[in-house]
Design goal:
Layout (H helix, E strand, L loop, with lengths): L4 E4 L2 H13 L6 H23 L12 E6 L4 E6 L6 H8 L5 H11 L6 H6 L11 E9 L8 E6 L4 E7 L5 E8 L9 H12 L6 E4 L13 E3 L16 H12 L5 E9 L5 E8 L4 H4 L9 E5 L2 E5 L1 H4 L8 E6 L8 H5 L2 H24 L1 H21 L4 H7 L3 E2 L11 H6 L7 E6 L3 H5 L5 H5 L5 E3 L4 H5 L4 E2 L2 E5 L9 H25 L28 H9 L3
Helix pairs in contact: 2-6, 11-12, 12-13
The structure holds adenosine-5'-diphosphate and magnesium ion.
Magnesium ion binds next to helix 2.
Length: 559
């Protein structure tokens, strides 16, 4: 047939396919979640496009997903009557890798990082997970609005090539047919597929239908259908009607995560502007976060009156909360809102403010009531949260209150001391929160600068995370107390100490002059100091100087 052609995958697709099929084996059943998630996205897209162009629904407005299997043919199929794809879209979406997220995924996997099933959905390579259980995948698709003769058949064994053919398809939407590998028969059973749908996709907002099972357990390819998921937009229900398991199941589908969420907050705001937020804290950092990617943020879906509009994490959450996953459903935004308009929408500012407040409220509640969860949160996201000190001046004090640090009065390298703990232990008359920064905890804890503070029983916070110096640039004060590097400013001396220092300075006058002469321009001043007890000398900084290891970091970065 003239319309059939064979093409090769883009080199990177072949690589992704290989990695996905080899690394996902222990979680192979997630192929179903990923295909259903794509089908649900396709229904979302059609519903959205149909607002401007109702004719796209063409008499079939009941959007749905169907999962079926055929024992004889040994296939499992996932069908949707969503947006569908034209020929070019099929090539672009499943023959090439468009998103830079996928490139990062590849880089991550080809590096030391062990391939992990959690990566797959999060990086938009879900479609390929079908090849974990199938040795051949067929996609039949017809774009909404296209004629029956413009259907596309795509087929591949996942070995580097695929074929493409124009075919006649009676209905719009997409069918993905998995031709199962010889030892994957377990998926040819209705109960098995059903339990997977319920486990991973229960709260997909469209009905997922499966063939009614007959007494003899025959094929599920035709006949009557049952809806097997709850098909509810979970966030629209009242909180007291939602069980924890429902929240967790919804999170897993939303965040493409196998693990439970750490905590969540679900709120409805009524008033001149009404909206619902359901926001989750993951238990572990999502991979995009670990790789430092601040661009192309995913994870917060914007709905308008239950219609999915776009992934709007960047518009709805500041960078320092980019680990949050969830849903925002607004009642009053125009449905045809574009990303550009969103960025300057007043209503959105309010929603954004509410999201930030809810997340901070939630973290504060964990700190107050669930110390173990809070510790897990701080371990996973504490350093990301620190960015907020510089980024969100309006919430600086609230964020600072949530941070925990290692300290000379804490336990080892553990970060468990809050600024409030520190203030609670301050000596009478002390008005400064002292800290030291270094490249490592050991270097911070071993700094000779600490001697004078130890001798006087003054606590010092030990900072050794890369972000700390930058954060401290914006955190000059907390609760009316100044924060200061131990190498800067004047030590708190009492009357007799001050007298002693003056005498010592007088006595050492010739030595100091000689040293200054020897060191020349390399130092600004040579002084007698009360900072030391054991070491003979140390470098000290003027108030406006940068900390020595920060200078080194800048030099390494070529500044
Ligand atoms: P992601 O869903 O994160 O984009 P996938 O690998 O799961 O990544 O899917 C790749 C792309 O293929 C989708 O973005 C979409 O454009 C297209 N696609 C996959 N399945 C369908 C479907 N059922 N209907 C329409 N388009 C689909
Ligand atoms: Mg997908």
């Amino acid at each position: 047939q003239a319309t059939t052609e064979t093409r090769s995958f883009e080199a990177e697709v072949a690589q992704v396919l290989h990695l996905v099929t080899h690394s996902l084996y222990s979680h192979k059943e997630i192929f179903l979640r990923e295909l259903i998630s794509n089908a649900s996205d396709a229904c979302d897209k059609l519903r959205f496009e149909a607002i401007a162009e109702p004719a796209l629904l063409a008499g079939d407005g009941e959007l749905r997903i169907e999962v079926s299997w055929e024992r004889e043919a040994r296939t499992v199929s996932v069908r949707d009557n969503g947006i569908g794809m034209g020929r070019d879209e099929v090539v672009a979406n499943i023959g090439t890798i468009a998103s830079s997220g996928t490139r990062r995924f590849l880089e991550a996997l080809s590096g030391e990082q062990k391939a992990d099933a959690r990566l797959i959905g999060q990086f938009g390579v879900g479609f390929y997970s079908g090849f974990v259980v199938a040795d051949r995948v067929t996609v039949l698709s017809r774009r909404a609005g296209a004629a029956a003769g413009e259907g596309v058949k795509w087929e591949s064994d996942g070995q580097g090539q695929y074929t493409l053919e124009t075919v006649e398809l009676p209905e719009r939407g997409t069918t993905v047919i998995l031709h199962l590998k010889p030892d994957e028969d377990e998926f040819l059973a209705g109960w098995k597929l059903r339990s997977l749908v319920q486990r991973y996709s229960d709260h997909v907002a469209f009905p997922i239908r499966m063939p009614k099972e007959t007494a003899d357990g025959a094929d599920g390819a035709a006949g009557a259908w049952d809806t097997v998921n709850s098909a509810s937009a979970l966030w629209t229900k009242p909180r007291n009607e939602i069980a924890d398991e429902d929240y967790q199941a919804f999170y897993k589908a939303l965040g493409h995560d196998f693990n439970d969420a750490l905590a969540w907050t679900h709120n409805r705001v009524e008033g001149s502007q009404s909206f619902t937020t359901l926001l989750y804290l993951p238990a572990q950092p999502p991979f995009d976060l670990m790789m430092g990617g601040r661009d192309e943020r995913k994870g917060l879906k914007l709905y308008i009156k239950r219609v999915f509009v776009m992934d709007a994490a960047e518009e709805l959450l500041p960078g320092y909360l980019r680990f949050v996953r969830g849903v925002v459903d607004a009642d009053d935004l125009p449905l045809n809102v574009s990303r550009e308009l969103l960025q300057q929408n007043r209503q959105l500012d309010r929603i954004r403010g509410a999201c930030v407040k809810r997340v901070l409220d939630l973290v504060e509640k964990l700190a107050r009531e669930e110390p173990e969860k809070f510790a897990a949160f701080h371990k996973a996201f504490g350093n990301t949260l620190k960015e907020g000190i510089a980024e969100d001046a309006g919430n600086r004090e609230r964020i600072a209150k949530l941070l925990r640090f290692a300290s000379t009065k804490g336990e080892g390298a553990g970060q468990s001391v809050s600024l409030d703990d520190y203030i609670g232990r301050m000596a009478v008359g002390q008005d400064t929160i002292w800290y030291v920064t270094a490249d490592s905890h050991a270097a911070a804890a071993g700094s000779p600068q600490l001697e004078a503070f130890r001798a006087r029983g003054i606590e010092v916070l030990l900072m050794s995370d890369r972000i700390d110096e930058w954060m401290l640039g914006s955190l000059r004060e907390y609760a009316g107390k100044k924060l200061q590097h131990v190498a800067k400013g004047e030590l708190p001396l009492d009357e007799s100490e001050r007298e002693k220092q003056e005498e010592a300075t007088k006595a050492a006058e010739p030595l100091l002059r000689k040293l200054k002469g020897l060191l020349g321009d390399r130092v600004a001043e040579v002084k007698v100091s009360a900072r030391l007890t054991d070491s003979p000398s140390c470098l000290a900084l003027a108030d406006h100087d940068m900390a020595p290891h920060f200078v080194r970091l800048l030099r390494e970065a070529g500044q």
